[in-house]
Sequence to fold (446 residues):
Amino acid sequence: MLNNNHKNLNCAFAEPLISYLYGESGAAEKAEFEAHLKTCASCHIELTKFGFTRSAVHEWRVEEFDKLATPVIELPSSSIKTQTVATDSRSWFSDWRQIFSFKLALAMSALAIAVVLVGVTFMALNFRGDNIDVAEKTANDKVIKTAVSPTVEKTVEPPKQTVDTNKFAAPDLPVKIVNQKTAAPKSPAIKVSANAPKNNSDNVVPVRAGQNTNKGNQKFAAVPKSKIPSLTDSEDEEDNSVRLADLFDEIETK
Amino acid sequence: MTTDLTDEQLVEMAIAENPQAFGEIVKRWERKIFALCFGMLSREEEAKDAAQETFIAAFRNLKNFRGDAKVSSWLHRIAVNQCLTTMRRLKTRSESFLDDEDESADKIFVAPSGKMPSRTAEQNERVAIVRQAVNALPTDLRQIIVMKEFEEMTFQEISDALDVPLSTVKSRLYTGLKQLRMKLERTPVEIV
Fold:
């Protein structure tokens, strides 16, 4: 008796049915399924309908495919050549060379970019530095021009005689302060420094180029000589110390 | 000489710059690959092109062939991918190249009254319906039916080719045949 209650073949008999349908079931599996077919009408019907379906597909194949000739597979010569070339170049040296040629090209490109960047930066800095120098030069020129007035410029003479004779005439600030307090009254130039006549060359000292460039030019147009320690001031200080030493020596001798 | 070698040995020889070895592989598999392509695409010209492209792709990617896989599985995978690419291209070209056949599949073949239809016409109609029904199946089910019916591969070979378990092959084939039967039962064309 066939059992028609078996509706779903997916659970247990799908695979045995397919194997049996295509004749690929083993001996034990075949016997088991044939025994099941005697009692299962659904499997019997399913197997019959699957047989019809297979026949339909087989007919399609016979009618349309089996008549067709097998196409001639032609591998393009370019691909064969490519393959051959590729296999020829598969030595370790060629691989190494390919890798390093690529890396070398990359490194060269990076180096070129770096050189260009450095060059551009250098040029930009130089251009800026030139501008600064030009600005400083122009500013200094203005300072010099303003410091040395046309009238004074003709009469100014550098104090050559004092530089050679004084060994200790360092232009340090403490020395200047000491000189202003101690040796100022002795210098006759200081007395006339404030309201000195224009043609007096000792009253105006030219300011050297590069000094006080960041300050106003008019403030340093003409510096009175009284505010600047002269080389003779430090000489006086040296003389005083020598005198004190002489006094101590005299005391000791006495 | 090369006929005694396995597919894997032939591939190794082909990698070692022996073009005759790959020619032997082509000779062994061209018919089956063509059958697979025809079953998947249902068009002769597209199937030829797909088979051609399959072997070209295989030849160009010989170095990528894994030794642990079978050549048959490798070739089938390439062929299926090639067929899917062709189907997408055809679908893009004309909305769906199956639309025309959908319409023909919906038609019910009725013999003219008073005149016996020729067997050839009836056969052609039946074949067209079957072809359309197979084309309407999902790709994974259609692929297995074609491999079984056109290539006559065993379950184990299909399992190896698709890299799926044997039970999966059987269950997919069962489902595919069931869906195909249902599609064919909707058409009043006699199945011989």
